[in-house]
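INFO  loader      accepted 1 record
INFO  loader      residues=188
INFO  predictor   begin
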Amino acid sequence: MRNLNAPFTEKTVRELKLGEVISVSGPVVTARDEAHIRTLQLLDAGKPIPAILRGAVLYHCGPIMKKSAEGVWTVIAAGPTTSARMNKLEPRMIRECGIRAVIGKGGMSAEVAAVMKECGCVYLAATGGAAVSLAEGLAQVTGVDWEDLGMAEAVWHFQANNLGPLVVAMDTEGNSLYEQVRERLNRA
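INFO  predictor   done
INFO  writer      dumping tokens
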């Protein structure tokens, strides 16, 4: 398993191959439905968005967080959420925010795959049900935006340390492990 340091360049993600297993170190940010919607609304209004979203490794995750008496946040569990919920929102996020990698589970639509190919972005599949193990890879909480959305929907900033294993399940060539499985099932 190869460890990659974020933020990623377009060249780095274009070199990743379908099925490759990696881990990620460096900045990772969570964003689910409500964070995507708010980001796009702010962009439409010409207002600023959190800088951490630009060129991000974006994790579809609603983490369980704990705040100490001293006000320090730690992550307890951080499993992937179903990415297909963001299918209609992700193309604009990738294009307008320069997202280089999306971490989640279940894959995304052909439309998202086409935008990933166009812009240089990959989909990294995380194992569902491994929330505590994945949280161990999110070594430090470095910030949070939009706490008003609630714990699961807020944009959490992490400094990752070997977050993974993650499988390149959609690459920058338009290939998708999910589509390959569907095609095999349809032939069976």
